[in-house]
Amino acid sequence: MYAVTMGDRGRLVVPAELRQRAGFEEGRPLVLLYSPGGVVLLTRDQLKDMVRADLADVDVVGALLAERREAADVEDAV
User: Fold this and answer.
1) What b/e string do you get for 1-35 counting C-beta neighbours within 10 Å, with b at 16 or more?
2) Where is the SpoVT-AbrB domain (predicted)?
């Protein structure tokens, strides 16, 4: 756990040890993610990995196709 203080214009200083452990390098784009549990600071790669893990068991394409077929069936019935 690291305690930081918000500075002017919303600036935060991320302690060097945490930057090193998290892979935060100077100039690297970061993402602030708001969630009900708080705010999370991630690299874009970390965010992509998190989203992929969350969607690993979800068939997004299959769900979209099923939705489109259902809409087409309703449209054909009219």
Assistant:
1) eeeeeeeeeeeeeeeeeeeeeeebeeeeeeeeeee
2) 1-47
Residue 27, token pair as written in the block: 């100039």
**How far is residue 68's CA from residue 29's CA, in Å, rounded to a whole number?**
37
| pTM for the structure as a whole | 0.61
* Full residue range of the structural domain in which residue 16 is found: 8-77
pLDDT tens digits along 19-45: 999 989 999 999 999 999 999 999 999
Number of domains comprising the chain: 1
End-to-end CA distance of the chain: 60
In a domain, 38, yes or no: yes
The set of residues, in sequence order, having a beta carbon less than 8 Å from that of 41 and lying 6+ positions away, is 14, 22, 30, 31, 32, 33
